[in-house]
Amino acid sequence: MSEVSGVTASGTTQTSKKTGPRELGQDDFLTLLVTQLKNQDPLKPTDNAEFVSQLAQFSQLEQTAKQSQLLQKSLDAQSASLQFTLLPMVGRRISIDRALVQLENGQGSVTYALEKNAARAQIAILDQQRQVVRTLDATDLQAGLNQARWDGKDSKGAVMPPGVYEYAVSAVDQQGASIVAKGRAQLTVTGVRMEEGQPRLAVGAITLDPSEIVEVQ
Q: How far apart are CA 203 and CA 61, in angstroms?
């Protein structure tokens, strides 16, 4: 964007800003149409068919603008309605299929599903920089859902701040072969937050799509 300076009759300097081209709207179209009628040659008036075509374009532009406004109002109302619909979820305990653990009151419950029985499993808890802060070991695990308790401390015994952490599970059978393990997070909803015009469930600093919920307790 560039500026153009000029001097008025009183000697003061005025600065005007040049802006780039903008999209013509309904009022601009009507102004152009009226100007055309005012300045047309009386001996060569605008052709009737052309004039009707221009009026039809103006009518179409006006209808499109109104439809766009109505659609936006409808979308805003729908988003607000969905946001209020999610409010009863605040404070509820939910489960989603993601490898997350929520540390609350110095305690965290790590839930994961094993494809089959495992002889050993190791759970690595990660911070926001995806650095391992603690590892938990378990043995003689059954296929299906399993849980491990985390006391909220890192490997050096320091207390970690409350929040949502990621974790990774590696499990093997008696022969040392790897077993598929899938994360299952149990989280407490702390609020509802709008993101890109859509309501999301908030769990601390992270947000979740309501469609991710597999169980509500």
A: 45
